[in-house]
Amino acid sequence: MRGTSRASLVAVEERFEPVLAAAGSQASVLGEQLFALVDALDRSGSLRRVLGDPSIEGDAKAGLVGRLLPTADPRVTAVAQDLVRQRWSADGDLAEAAERLGFHAVLARAENEGDLARVEEEIFRLSRALVGQREVRQTLFDPAIPGEARAELVDKILAGRATEVASIVARRAAAAPRGRRYVATLGHIADLIAERRDRQVATVTTATPLSEAQRARLTEILGQAYARDIQLNVILDPDVIGGLRIQVGPQVVDSTVLSRLADARRRLAG
């Protein structure tokens, strides 16, 4: 999301954050109601076009949202109306923004309860557990399987060992993939958590384990490269090409392409 849409999203997020902070444990309820709005937008192309149409008066679109969400929490209705009053570069950006706010709302509950770091670790562990489970990953993305059935599979995988917040976002990722692979959505959620913790997540897939010294040095190198604190998540995969693969957000840092990583590898080896 870029340009006009990005500016609109940032403006709405800034106004919604104080609401989430005040909501405490109820923030996750707001998030799940926002997911219902996302589902409505995804089901109806005509609704997306109307609510994203810049030629239609903002108040008229806000009124339509009020009728669309008659039983929603007033705080959800207010942020949804704020969203449709903004300008969006593409129809799909409105649904993407609503989904992002929904995930942030659920994660805000964990933040308010002091559990955000634990949720981050649980999401990472789930991603790591799926690395060698190709059939399971395909099932979690299969459009022929009902969303609720995919969510129930996530429940079986977690087996009650995760926090409620981690379970909510993990189930949502399976129930409504919105064109993304399941693990990719988990990565997106991890990025949102890092954003709330003001850190960037770097996922390192390596053929051999990294020592503590190597992890610390790689974290330092990436922190300097991206000018922010780095959360380093390491996945072991003996088949990874070149022995080391690093992904920071959507960006894959490949040692055959970027001299920065080649230099990092030399420094790690030293």
From TrEMBL:
Keywords: ATP synthesis, Cell membrane, CF(1), Hydrogen ion transport, Ion transport, Membrane, Transport. Its main location: membrane. This is ATP synthase subunit delta. The gene is atpH. This protein is part of the stalk that links CF(0) to CF(1). It either transmits conformational changes from CF(0) to CF(1) or is implicated in proton conduction. Belongs to the ATPase delta chain family. Coiled coil: none annotated. It holds the Pfam family OSCP. Transmembrane segments: none annotated. InterPro entries: ATPase_OSCP/d_CS, ATPase_OSCP/dsu. The lineage of its organism: Bacteria, Bacillati, Actinomycetota, Actinomycetes, Micrococcales. It is a peripheral membrane protein. It comes from Cellulomonas fulva. It is found in: Cell membrane; Membrane. PANTHER family: ATP SYNTHASE DELTA CHAIN.
